[in-house]
Amino acid sequence: MNENSVDRKNQTVTSKPPKEFRAEYNAVKNYMHNELGITKDDILQIIKETVQTEISKVNKIAYIERTIEDVVKQEIYGSFRSDYWSKDAFKQRVSKVLTDNLTDIVANQLSISVEVNKES
Length: 120
Known about the structure:
This protein is mainly α. The chain has helices spanning 22-35, 40-81, 87-109, and strands at 3-7, 12-16. The protein has two domains: 9-43; 52-108. The mean pLDDT is 80.
C-alpha cells in the first residue's frame, strides 16, 4: 500500500512507491537528482508546462468543433426558415449523404475475401 501525505496549505501530495519498488524508485530518483541535476521543482515546472500545453490543445480542438457545429446548425436553421428545404426533402438528402458516406467508410474498413472450393 502506498504511503501518502497531503499538505492542504500548499496543495501538494507526497506519495511513496510500494515497498517492492522502493529500491528502483530510489535509484531513479538519485540518478535524476545527482547525475542529471534535476530538482523536484524542475519536474513540477515541466509537468505544469506540459499540462498547460495539452489543455490549450484540447481547448483549441473543442473550440473548432463547437464552431463547426454552430455553423452547420445556422445553415440548417436558415434553410428551414427560408423554406429552401422542406422537412421531408431535408431528411431524404441527409439520409442519402449519410448512407453514401457510411457505405464508403464501411467498405474501406472491411476486407472481404471469398473462396470457392471446387469439389470434383
